[in-house]
């Protein structure tokens, strides 16, 4: 392992300043993803700035919604009764995402920023545009079972691994960020990027930008929500596909709906086309099927040494229909 300096932060402003000023610096909190990448040699920082003591661990009621500090552990967030009652999809996604030991370490600010579990990204002996821009994508034509069917590019077909991020995308959450220039807030759905020609950039954040909080808006719709995850084994594993959904049905008609998909793209995939199809339509399986087909019209399966990932298209369709049936 490459030697590095370690510096506990004294406050968030100083932490942002220190990381922004040094290209080889990075933040560390729970470290559940970062430590893996240090061991694998995927990243080799020369400075770790520990923000554990300076990021908020509070969950607060604000304007009818919830304000969640970036330092809140995933286990505490999943157990919070306000989350379980008002945003059950988020609690379910957190519980589906990792073991209790990992949830006790992982943080609200760090979870959405975890990087892909693509085997080629994690293997430093193979070309990977996400790890070394311009080196190529070993996944194309290789092992593709876990890879993208939506929004991929010729430069990268990796998927985003966070379950929590899928739920936050469906909940119209907002992200609070501290930068070297000051504070900013933007929709969570705008945090992550599609790969295009720069797959090494997972998010819109610049070097040194720090997530300080996640904000959940008031949402009666979210009280009837759920997270459904399909994985290769019953124990903790990353999603083949997943669905975060919230549904409001009155007199057999869909009044409103929110849907996000996981395991299908480089970012949590907000299913706007499916939502548009469903609003004002009967809450029936046929309509749910049509909504899934509309969302997946541009889906492209990958060939691969393992038989490819074409199975994901019918699998995500069935998973979405099942999730909506359960809520209606």
TrEMBL record:
<dbReference type="InterPro" id="IPR016169">
    <property type="entry name" value="FAD-bd_PCMH_sub2"/>
</dbReference>
<dbReference type="GO" id="GO:0071949">
    <property type="term" value="F:FAD binding"/>
</dbReference>
<dbReference type="GO" id="GO:0016491">
    <property type="term" value="F:oxidoreductase activity"/>
</dbReference>
<dbReference type="InterPro" id="IPR016166">
    <property type="entry name" value="FAD-bd_PCMH"/>
</dbReference>
<dbReference type="InterPro" id="IPR016167">
    <property type="entry name" value="FAD-bd_PCMH_sub1"/>
</dbReference>
<dbReference type="Pfam" id="PF00941">
    <property type="entry name" value="FAD_binding_5"/>
</dbReference>
<dbReference type="Pfam" id="PF03450">
    <property type="entry name" value="CO_deh_flav_C"/>
</dbReference>
<keyword id="KW-0560">Oxidoreductase</keyword>
<dbReference type="InterPro" id="IPR005107">
    <property type="entry name" value="CO_DH_flav_C"/>
</dbReference>
<dbReference type="InterPro" id="IPR036683">
    <property type="entry name" value="CO_DH_flav_C_dom_sf"/>
</dbReference>
<dbReference type="InterPro" id="IPR002346">
    <property type="entry name" value="Mopterin_DH_FAD-bd"/>
</dbReference>
<feature type="domain" description="FAD-binding PCMH-type">
    <location>
        <begin position="1"/>
        <end position="221"/>
    </location>
</feature>
<protein>
    <submittedName>
        <fullName>Xanthine dehydrogenase YagS FAD-binding subunit</fullName>
    </submittedName>
</protein>
<dbReference type="InterPro" id="IPR036318">
    <property type="entry name" value="FAD-bd_PCMH-like_sf"/>
</dbReference>
<dbReference type="InterPro" id="IPR051312">
    <property type="entry name" value="Diverse_Substr_Oxidored"/>
</dbReference>
